[in-house]
Amino acid sequence: MVKTRRSPRCTVFATVFATALAGAWLLSAAAAHALDFYVDAAAGDDTRGPLEALSPATPWRTIDHALRQVQPGHTIRVRPGTYPESVGTACDAVSLVADEGLGSVFLEPPAGAVGVDVRHRDVVVDGIAVRGGATGLRAELADGLRVLRSAFVAQSGTGVRVVGSASVQIDSVVVASSGKAGIELERSAPSLVRNNLVYDTGTWGIVVEGEAAGAQLDTTLAFNTVAYNGGASGGGIFLREVAVDVRDNVLAFNEPIGLRVGAGAVPHVRHNLIFGSGQLVFPEGSALGPGNVVADPLFTQPAGADGVLGGPDGFLDDDFSLQQLAAGDAAQSPAVDAGSVAAAEDIGGSTRRDAELDAGVADLGFHRGARLADAIPDALPVPAPAPGSGATYWVDCAAGDDTRSKAEAVSPATPWRTIGRAARMLAYGEVAMVKPGACAEEIETRTAGVTFAAATPGSVVVEPPAGKNGFNVQHDDVTIDGFVVRSPHQGVLGAK
């Protein structure tokens, strides 16, 4: 693929001259590489010069004007207020920052317009809330883009869309009530989509699409809460032609699908909570890694005190914190302490309504006040599965239900009924754990590298029909552990 891009040249001075009462001041471009300029919708004036806009007392009036004036390395500090405009970058390495953080600055583009249009490298957008318009933020050929602590709400199209850009970080962002997808990355690896709250979108919460999955996990989706997305179509997360590390997320109440593994996708799905979708994972036979949970996450008050989920104003009080006994809640969310790492090591912030910091093993999903990631993680090799290293699925021959999905069978509370059902569903490296009892069936393997284990050795009796084998093994690297097989024919037949 051949990339073309806009010139990084900017429209403003390389050298600024100003005259003061004491004489002439010279400000060279080299000395000005890290200057802060101010914008204030109420008190600003776009006729002012760049030297005046260095002071918060004499700011510019519009963000778009500021973006057309600054040089690489400069920061535009936006004072609190509402900015009815659509803005676009004019050069590389510019930072657009809400001077008082998220909730102080609202950018309101016209209907059908883009809120922030990024076509340059190493741009930072921090603390800006974009309300309305067609797309909240659109970026193309924008390597090094960092979208931090911002919000994109009530777009008619996509909240955040990034195309053809490498080393992208979307971190601690809220995306709510977009008409289409919440966050969409297309041909944009390596990237980090971390600690975002994405909900009430019209199609998918997060979409990651590439051209062909490689041998390394070069995109990471971590600590996101993706909830109440989709409807007749769409759902939580959609992956296609990418290799992605999917970990420590909460995917809840997305319809009709929680996680869709599309053509050519190679995901490593570990330590996530997935719940409340018609199909938790599609296709059903998709391989899952360890540590996944299927249970209600027990959000505190997702629609907020006003009872309105998302929306241009309703999103402000929506509370996706996790119920916790230590915070005085009546129940304990199963997402608490279910992560793949220690909280202090990777995330910080809080999942509690009382803002107490996460400690010990990290909780899953969005953390308010989390520290930003220092860098995009190094690409990891796609894990080579080994027997017994994958997800564990439960079987209860007395009380299980074979109509349950593969994701449901991750929980011992919602097991399958037969070992044969497990044999048909397991992927290489995965484990079927069987609760104590009698299983009247013949088990025939369908793939190599799977493990069948009794939860307690000697507690599971397999009794096949007359003339049948207990286990009919026709694949390599199969492990059978802890069963009692009662068969007048053969207990275990290994043949190809």
What does this structure look like?
With 496 residues, this protein is mainly beta. Helix content is 3%, strand content 34%. The protein contains three helices and 44 strands. The chain has a ten-stranded parallel β-sheet with strand order 3-4-7-10-13-16-19-23-26-29. It has a nine-stranded parallel β-sheet with strand order 5-8-11-14-17-20-24-27-30, with no helix packed on it. A hairpin with a 2-residue loop joins strand 1 and strand 2. The chain starts with 14 loop residues before the first strand and ends with a strand. The relative contact order is 0.07.
Please outline the helices and strands:
Layout: E1 15-20, E2 23-28, E3 36-39, H1 63-67, E4 75-78, E5 81-83, E6 87-88, E7 95-98, E8 105-107, E9 114-118, E10 124-126, E11 129-131, E12 135-140, E13 146-148, E14 151-153, E15 160-163, E16 168-171, E17 174-176, E18 183-186, E19 191-194, E20 197-199, E21 204-209, E22 216-217, E23 219-222, E24 225-227, E25 230-240, E26 243-247, E27 250-252, E28 255-261, E29 266-270, E30 273-275, E31 279-282, E32 299-301, E33 319-322, H2 343-346, E34 380-381, E35 392-395, H3 419-425, E36 431-434, E37 437-439, E38 443-444, E39 451-454, E40 460-462, E41 471-473, E42 479-481, E43 483-485, E44 492-494
Parallel strand pairs: 3-4, 4-7, 5-8, 6-9, 7-10, 8-11, 9-12, 10-13, 11-14, 12-15, 13-16, 14-17, 15-18, 16-19, 17-20, 18-21, 19-23, 20-24, 21-25, 23-26, 24-27, 25-28, 26-29, 27-30, 28-31, 35-36, 36-39, 37-40, 38-41, 39-42, 40-43, 41-44
Antiparallel strand pairs: 1-2, 22-34, 32-33
